[in-house]
Specification:
15 strands, single chain, about 250 residues, about 10% helix, Jelly Rolls, eight-stranded antiparallel β-sheet
């Protein structure tokens, strides 16, 4: 019985982002030019605020499933490696960087026709680290209902998080979580309508609000897919990683 299948890296996130589309979905500068950038280098993917004034700006960087060599599907776990330092600790300072799924790789952008907020015009969900407030946050938009700010897990230092993950549990059900030294943690289960095309695109989410606050929030590396791990295997990984799992397998022989 395979307990931990090797993850298939579908994008190391150290090269071109040409297969992705960056879409600003919340623009509180009201078209004045503020926004969010995503850039990739040899160190990985990072995100930053763009603009000359401090306004809440949110964006998604998405690619269709067809862009990748391995397709994300029901029964799979989507992961990204996280190397994000702890930020300035402030209740008012905000900077999020996360993993996302969407019903489309090219959602409608924020503009005058939608009040510079297009987040409810398509289905999507994200799980992100927020370094300045030592928290994990989940967002979702399901059939026009937006949920942000109510799914917060406090006391999680960004520097302790090694991975973010999204499990495709069944046709319209996804688990959002993170991995740290204590193992895997389930943050939230989100359920979309049966008619949704959720899962048609995958990528990243960023919420940036402070001009000059964090020059570049990152890095993310090795976007990967693997079968959803069995609960026993995940528990053993939290207790001792490979050696705990090996010992458990020896006892079963």
């Amino acid at each position: 019985m395979a307990l931990l299948a090797q993850a298939q890296i579908i994008d190391p996130l150290t090269g071109s982002l040409s297969g992705y589309t960056s879409t600003l979905v919340l623009d509180n500068s009201l078209g004045a030019g503020n926004g969010v950038s995503f850039t990739s280098s040899g160190s990985g993917l990072q995100t930053a605020f763009v603009g000359t004034t401090s306004t809440p700006e949110q964006a998604l960087l998405l690619a269709p499933l067809s862009y990748f060599s391995t397709i994300f599907a029901v029964g799979d776990r989507l992961t990204v490696n996280v190397a994000v330092p702890d930020g300035p600790q402030s209740g008012s300072f905000t900077a999020d960087f996360g993993l996302a799924i969407s019903a489309t790789a090219t959602p409608t952008a924020a503009g005058s026709g939608n009040g510079y907020n297009s987040r409810t015009t398509f289905d999507w969900a994200s799980i992100s680290v927020r370094p300045p407030q030592s928290s994990i946050r989940e967002n979702s938009s399901i059939s026009g209902t937006l949920v942000t700010g109510s799914n917060v897990h406090s006391g999680v230092a960004a520097s302790s998080v090694s991975q973010l993950y999204i499990d495709w549990v069944s046709a319209d059900v996804f688990n959002l979580g993170w991995v740290d030294g204590g193992g895997a943690h389930l943050g939230e289960t989100v359920t979309f309508a049966p008619s949704s095309t959720i899962g048609a695109a995958i990528g990243f989410y960023s919420d940036q609000r402070l001009q000059g606050g964090i020059t570049g929030l990152g890095y993310f590396t090795d976007l990967a897919i693997q079968p959803i791990p069995e609960p026993t295997a995940m528990a053993l990984c939290g207790l001792g990683g490979f050696f705990g799992l090996a010992g458990w397998m020896r006892r079963r022989k």
